[in-house]
Design goal:
Blueprint: H1 4-28, H2 32-40, H3 47-62, H4 68-88, H5 96-120
Helix pairs in contact: 1-3, 1-4, 1-5, 3-4, 4-5
Length: about 120
């Protein structure tokens, strides 16, 4: 296997972890604009806390190679829900970022699983 893949996987995972940790902070201390967006999407007032906890968990899990696939899968799930929410509500301006992060999360998941198999082989 290409020797650059483990480094690429680690860099992407750490960037993704930073994104989710920053996102958790932003969702825990939500702005009025995003509170209005959550309400417009049909979520209850407290739902941003659920998002914050899920993003915090994903960010923490992404930091260690042993738990990275779980963090990437959790992050991908959160971003798939965010992408779907924005698309269903025709909020296309907010759909691009979660779709990109979903793609990165799936890439990290694939790389982590492939690298884990190679370590065991």
């Amino acid at each position: 296997m290409n020797k650059a893949l483990p480094l690429l996987s680690t860099i992407l995972a750490w960037l993704l972890a930073a994104f989710f940790l920053f996102g958790a902070y932003g969702n825990a201390l939500i702005s009025e604009e995003y509170a209005a967006a959550y309400a417009a999407w049909g979520y209850p007032d407290w739902f941003h806390y659920v998002t914050a906890v899920l993003e915090l968990t994903a960010g923490i899990l992404l930091m260690r190679s042993a738990t990275r696939p779980f963090g990437a899968a959790l992050g991908a799930s959160v971003m798939a829900a965010a992408t779907l929410t924005t698309l269903v509500n025709a909020d296309y301006d907010h759909a691009v970022a979660p779709a990109v992060v979903l793609a990165v999360s799936l890439s990290v998941l694939g790389l982590s699983v492939a690298l884990g198999r190679n370590r065991r082989a």
